[in-house]
Amino acid sequence: MDKQFSIAGKVAVISGAGGVLGGSIAKSFVQAGAKVVAVDIRQEPLDARVAELRGLGGEVTGFIANVLDVESLERLAGDVITQWGRVDILLNIAGGNMPGATLAPDQAFFDMKVSDWEKVTNLNLNGTVYPSMVFGRIMAQQKKGCIVNVSSMAAYSALTRVPGYSAAKSAVSNFTQWLATEMALKYGDGIRVNAIAPGFFIGDQNRSALIKPDGSLTDRSLKVLAKTPMNRFGDITELNGAVQFLCSDAAGFITGVTLPIDGGFSAFSGV
Fold first, then answer.
1. Can 187 be counted among the known catalytic residues?
2. Could you tell me the fold of the domain covering 3-261?
3. Where are the domains of the chain?
4. What is the arithmetic mean of pLDDT over 244-257?
């Protein structure tokens, strides 16, 4: 690989590493030679992930931490610095949706559970802001570092049924721009902040909305594919290269962007 695209030897903190998306990206980072700090709030998925990553021959450590607890994150940061001496990359992957903040086809906005709205917006937005604050401070001291957040197609235009998730991911996109500007203006061009906006990938959280029990496509899936020029869902591994690129020196003049990885969904008007 061309050296400018390499992330070999870089120390990468990855939240949500016990999940599907975080795990896929963590595996790709290990295979690319990065030193991975796998972070999750759940012990069992984290232990399984660390074992898997070490099985690939990577330099990996696992830490339990809560992305919504600044003190927990500060303890994590101290442990990472003690072990590795620096933080090159922060991937804010922890996030997701909740059933109570997702409307069924026969539900109205007024039926949404406010408590789940608060949980979803808190996890996706503050679960990005707080780690960025803690590890961004380290990067500011280093005058170097890279943060990648996770936005969504829901931040580009309205997607029915997911009001909390949509609002939170829209805020993540805006925060990405804000923090990119803040870090560059105050701490120099060595710190970059970007985001990815995945299109439609079938995972545990959205499977029932996209795939019927018999394996056929739901009406929602058909609408998604009709607006996706590539006419298919993405594979989770198709996010990995974009994240690695944004963390490499090849993206040295890229900051404040949200990169769609969506098969053309955000580009197509449907006509």
1. no
2. Rossmann fold (3.40.50)
3. 3-261
4. 98
